[in-house]
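dumping this here before i forget
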Amino acid sequence: MASVTAAPEVMVTADGTPLKVSLHRALRRNKIRAFLLVLPLLAFLGFTFLWPIGVMMFRSVENSLVSTVMYRTVPLLAQWDETTGDLPDEAVFEALVQDVTEGFKNRTIGKVGTRLNYEEPGMSSIFRTSPKKFKKITEGPYKEKVIEAHKGWGDVDKWRLIKREGRPFTSSYYLAAIDRKLDNLGSITSQPAERQIYVKLFIRTLWMSALITGLCLLLGFPISFLLATLPTKTSNLLMILVLLPFWTSLLVRTTSWIAILQQHGVINDILVAIGLVSDDARLGMIHNQIGTVVAMTHILLPFMVLPLYSVMKTIPPSYMRAARSLGANPALAFWRVYMPQTVPGIGAGGILVFIIAIGYYITPALVGGTKGTLISNFIDYHMRVSLNWGLAAALGIILLGLILFLYIIYDRVVGIDNMKLG
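structure:
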């Protein structure tokens, strides 16, 4: 007689719903509830962080100004063959007169001149002086009269530039950010030697940030070790001294270094008083790279001390005693037992100080002079002074890309999982 296997009994809840279905519903409700709780934070981050980055990325390639203001000239130039070396035809010059005259009334043609002047100096002057002369041109032939109004309009390269920058998107800002440009035929070439500044600034920013990070580690490690090994009452008192700079204005701390480092400042006066330096050979420690490194090291030192201290505080002292009891001398025990356990704190403090230093601009602007400024100072300059937002956006995006690249390298070499704050 064949045996019959009974079907497994399905567990249900009090209302008759299968237990498995009920658990899935409960988990889904918990996920929705958790998402709704963090939704305000996600919206805040998106509005204050991701959206500005997206806007700046768009600004770095957006180029609609020329085509918007010169809406008659640009479409006609698109049909012009600039490789022949001949000037555009009569219709283009007629459209130019109409666009420049209308743009002058709307006060927009000057912006076009400024935009084109970023690519070739002298374009702003052409657009500034032409409108008044174009008012007298009411009939053809337009080409001869326009060139007579300003000889710059007889230069084929000027028309090539207008045609190229009349496109809705451009790579000019990114090329300028790496000291490159497009020549008259659209090929990428180097900027003139006197205008090649941004690559040097990027290199200076990277190595100065690395130097400041190294100095912060060199100074912060013994401070953190001392705070972690002293009794709690004493270490808490010393920790107040570490945190004290956060309670002082950044401008006050920076200007204090100006008073200390200047040629008639405290340090130079002491060196002259003790005879190490003559009065007519005082050291120049301000408005250069020395001033930037010293001031920024002082400002960023707490950002290295705090992660190191939080990690060192969790290392049991018994490890060092055990190493000593097994025959290791204090230096070997420190290097082989204690030091490897501080690597997560070194990584956290190092990456924190480096990222802050690479984007700093207030302190270098005050104490750096012309030799101690960083790339962030030029981003600030183009946003506030020259109003070249496209170039500022390109510089910022390249700087962000460099930081992400170095972050990926750090993750591959050290491992981001090995970084912790305690």
